[in-house]
What does this fold into?
Amino acid sequence: MKLRNSTLRMQTFVLTLALLTIGIATARAQFPFQPQKPKGPWMDKTLSPDQRADLAIAQMTLDEKIALLHGGGWAELFALFAPDGTAPATRSLGNAGYIPGIARLGIPDLQMADAAVGVTHGSVFGRYCTALPSGVSEASTWDLTMAREYGALIGRELRDQGYTMSLGGGIDLTREPRNGRIFEYKGEDPILAGKLVGAEMRALQEQGVVGDLKHYAMNDQENGRNYVNIKADRRAMRESDLLAFEIGVKDSGVGAVMCSYNLVNGVYACENDYLLNTALKKDFGFQGFVISDWGATHSVAKAAMAGLDMEMPGNDHFGEPLKKAVESGEVPAARLNDMVHRILRSEFAVGLFDNPPGRQEVDPMAGFEVAQRVAEQGTVLLKNADHQLPLAAAGIRSIAVIGSHADVGVLSGGGSAQVDAAGGSAVPPRAGLSPMEQVFGNPVWHRSSPLKAIRAQAPNAKVEFDPGTDTATAARLAQASDVAIVFVSQHASEGVDVPSLTLPQNQDALVSAVAAANPHTIVVLETGGPVTMPWIDHVSGVLESWYPGIRGAEAIANILFGEVNPSGKLPLTFPKSEADLPRPELAHQPPGRPEDMKALFPGVPYKENTRQFDLDYSEGLKVGYKWYDAEAKVPLFAFGHGLSYTTYAYSGLKITPAVPPAVTFTVENTGSRAGAEIAQVYVTLPAAAGEPFQRLVAWEKVQLAPGESKTVTATLDSHYLSIFNADQDAWELVPGDYQVHVGGSSRDTPLHRTFTIKDVEKGQSPPPAGGDK
Ligand code: BGC
It folds into this structure.
């Protein structure tokens, strides 16, 4: 089903999401699979994906080529629930996007599902999908093995449901900590985010589905996302935001990259020649296809020639208009073939032609296992005064569990990444929500009950729950209990940014009241990103569990009671106050102009290009901790921070000077519990580089038994030591002294040493970033 224009498309998108969210869509439908009996020389598996793509293209008509460059999305799903209940004449599985294949050539359907933190919209067809902990939780593991498990699980569940492509892999850096989509992303550091998404996408693609990275680039806030013009200099982009994509692309060989809604330096991301052709395709060597975010295509020849390969959804630009542009020569036939080639090579590369997905039951138990493991490794112990944690169940007579629906569930992030709650949301939606709120503001709680999990850990204690809506009642229960565990949360979603870093609904007052009533107060946070903590000095423990997924409560309880020794570290900074941010005020659309998302509603005209506003990234490459270090601001909790129930000592830093240099040091577990320490290596470049702040260049998760020591050796990737010379359009190693700092957090690096890169080495070009080490 094709839609006539952008307005209609967007309206349908919102309506459809609304239908899904309010649960009208309960019908089950069976779709016939496309009969695929591929024959032809392109089915020769001994040929490369590129050769096979070219052989298939040689057989294709112009119309067939054009048909692969755009498709439907949401609209098919909408049609499914037509009043007469008839199934639409489409094979779409009814998720975010669908492009029919070409049966005569065996070209498979592209069935795209949003799958940032698990496969979405399962409930529409009565399917189970694992709700994983959020992306920022995965990032808090700093663990490529965890990232692989995360990606493999999503890939397997997509494949089991017949999907052939994932829309996930979000790695926009946390430049704006109020961004509603931080929960989907992987924090503020380009190397950490890039390595993790690279491992995740490689594992996802190994399951035989096409992966993607998004949203390229610098789609760092939801407010005004369709109209905001990000002004950033090239060096800042290449060394931060774009570096994350560069590493992700190179490490994974990902099949697709989704360009974003916003403009970058005056040009829409989806028609930005520098972003797409120069950086992504030429410099990063990306061989896959560029897919537009939903409704982010704005032109025909301009977009095609700038590097966009696929418009989604709809056919406004890459349908008939593109065909005409090819016929007139405005878009050369060679470029059209390149677009198709990129799509087909991605499909060949993951095995879609040879091994198309067949539907089978998803294994929920396998999903639970991975979800719990990621949550346990990704939960961050922020504070633990006087070793309040872990709780010793045997000695505790009573526990007050307070707030945040902890009796029934754990919170999840909203928008297109929302994974349906198995069995429905544990907390029914509020009444009287507008359609917009139903889609973007309606929190979904997964059925994993912290109260039950805590009771299971402390079977002999009296464990009582108070909803926390009345601070006085909550404080009374806290006072009457040995320990108080307060759950606090902040919902975040695509489409809206959080209004501030202050916990909503009076929860700061709740924590303060409980802490005043009981000195043994532990706070468990369920948030998309950082929040401020005015009560921090008055509580004894703080655990950041993010949105912890379908087994979140079990993971939290295992950490609270010491079944699991926490090892997660923050992939982003928690500021003390919003005044410390590069932009203390969230950049809003200029007053007097309609709010961004309202433009999607029926009756509100969707006008191109009339609401643009500039957002100047004047902080440049000082993203996250680099900003706090450079500006001498003390964060509430630093990047890389995370406590354990044991203690670690660092010693013996040595550097083997070479290009690239190797760093060796020893980590010892000096406590009495086994644990895993994420040892971090930072480097400050020579003064001539003009970057007087450190950058993360390597890390290693070290498993240590009590008393055990291990020697870690990390070879520093020259690319990560380099700066981007915008004048030369090239990376370079600056000669001079490099200071190495090693420790357990960006603000706790007991080991320091310097190595020198001499002039003579300057000419050596750094090896490419990447290689899944
Ligand atoms: C989101 C994408 C998503 C797409 C399809 C857009 O609104 O920005 O992340 O993949 O919709 O659902």
Remarks:
- The chain has a mean pLDDT of 90.
- The radius of gyration is 26 Å.
